[in-house]
Each structure stands twice: as structure tokens, then as C-alpha cells.
Recover the amino acids of this structure.
């Protein structure tokens, strides 16, 4: 069965960086994209970006361009999301999800499996 | 970017009622529309994809319809376990925008 297991909660100061991991199992890691979604307290879902595990192509939400980097390690079947220059409004639960297209030109998939979420708190 | 407008933002209905949530895209997205259910304190769950396809295990009281710009999620007979926030999402191309959500409560 498909599992996405994320790293634990983080508390960071403004200006710092955070890197969240997402360990995938139960499927062929390189056959699906991985997307990242965040949810601020009491708010809705915000798509952050996508990475093709197949070829490393990425597409980031415009508001996060320059601050976010998504990567994967196919040997450990782990996806990573790093967010830099953290601000208080980055406080949120961060989710990884299997979904998006395999490559930029592939038919896209909905987000069918999700990680358990990682709480990132940004506070001085 | 294409905007996704969901309505209503919240609703309260009785057990057994038929519930309908709508989602409108600002431009056509064919049938690349998904619905997610997020129960309080839980992880979002894929409820419907390709506008009307239910993944395995989703109860048949849930259904989706629409194509192009206008989409609907219907719960044919609301159950207590359906209390949740429901989100639509376009996934034809980036950005894969979510709607703002519809909170469903029991009256």
C-alpha cells in the first residue's frame, strides 16, 4: 500500500530555513510526480509546487518563487521541500502528496495519496 | 491564472438531506477537476477525480459532475461522518489551484 511519511514538526525563527522530507513507499517512486501543499491555521489548502521525480523538473507557485526548492532522492525514495527566509505567515501544516504529472508534458494526476503533514511554526 | 470559486462557503443540513456544492473555474479546464474531503484535524482525502470518478472505497452517495467551467459535488444522503470541509482543485496545468472550501455541518 502507498505511504508517504513526513518528517516531524519544526520551530524556526524568522529568516531561517526549513527542509521537510517525505518518504514514499508502496509504489514506483519515479512513475509519479510529487506535489507540496500547505495549510495555515484555520485556512484552506494552498498549492506550493510540484516536482517530476522522473526528470527533476519543477513548477513553483509564483508567490514562493525564489524561496522554495523541491528535490527528490530516487535512491531513498524521498522528496524534500526547502523553504528559506521564513516569515510568520509561513506558519502552516505542510503536506506532500502524490500527484501532478509525471513530466511537464504528461497527463496530470489528482493528488491521490497524502503525507500526514508537518507543522512548521515560525516565531521569534 | 485560473481562479476556482466554490459556493457556498458553508452549509448546514440534516442527516439524509441531499447536499450540493458548486465550483466554477474562471476558464475552461476540461474535466481536470478533483474534490477533496478534509475532516477536522485530518489529512485531505481524494474524493473525486476527473470531475466524476470516485476512487476505490469512496461511498457511492458522493458524486461529481461537470466539465469546462462548472462543476458540482453532490452528497445524495448526508451522513454524520460527512462533516468536513470540501475543496475543489483544478489540475489541468500549473498552478494546481484549490477552491476556498465549503464547510459542511449537520443541522
Amino acid at each position: 500500500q502507498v505511504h508517504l511519511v513526513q518528517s516531524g514538526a519544526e520551530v524556526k525563527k524568522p529568516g531561517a530555513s526549513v527542509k521537510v522530507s517525505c518518504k514514499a513507499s508502496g509504489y514506483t517512486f519515479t512513475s509519479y510526480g510529487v506535489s507540496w501543499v500547505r495549510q495555515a491555521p484555520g485556512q484552506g489548502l494552498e498549492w506550493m509546487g510540484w516536482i517530476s521525480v522522473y526528470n527533476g523538473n519543477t513548477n513553483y507557485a509564483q508567490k514562493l518563487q525564489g524561496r522554495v526548492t523541491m528535490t527528490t532522492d530516487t535512491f531513498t525514495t524521498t522528496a524534500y521541500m526547502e523553504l528559506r527566509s521564513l516569515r510568520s505567515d509561513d506558519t502552516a501544516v505542510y503536506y506532500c502528496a502524490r500527484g501532478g504529472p509525471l513530466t511537464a508534458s504528461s497527463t496530470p494526476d489528482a493528488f491521490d495519496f497524502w503525507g500526514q503533514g508537518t507543522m512548521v511554526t515560525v516565531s521569534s | 491564472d485560473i481562479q476556482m470559486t466554490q459556493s457556498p462557503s458553508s452549509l448546514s443540513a440534516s442527516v439524509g438531506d441531499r447536499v450540493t456544492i458548486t465550483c466554477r473555474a474562471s476558464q475552461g479546464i476540461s474535466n481536470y477537476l478533483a474534490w477533496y474531503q478534509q475532516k477536522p484535524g485530518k489529512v485531505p482525502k481524494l474524493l473525486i477525480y476527473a470531475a466524476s470518478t470516485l476512487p476505490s472505497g469512496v461511498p457511492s452517495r458522493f458524486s461529481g459532475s461537470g466539465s469546462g467551467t462548472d462543476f458540482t459535488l453532490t452528497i445524495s444522503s448526508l451522513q454524520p461522518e460527512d462533516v468536513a470541509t470540501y475543496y475543489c482543485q483544478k489540475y489541468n496545468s500549473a498552478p494546481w489551484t484549490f477552491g476556498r472550501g465549503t464547510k459542511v455541518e449537520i443541522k
In short: The CA atoms of residues 47 and 58 of chain B lie 7 Å apart. The mean pLDDT of chain B is 97. Chain B touches chain A at residues 1, 32, 34, 36, 38, 43-46, 49-50, 55, 85, 87, 89, 91-101 (CB under 8 Å).
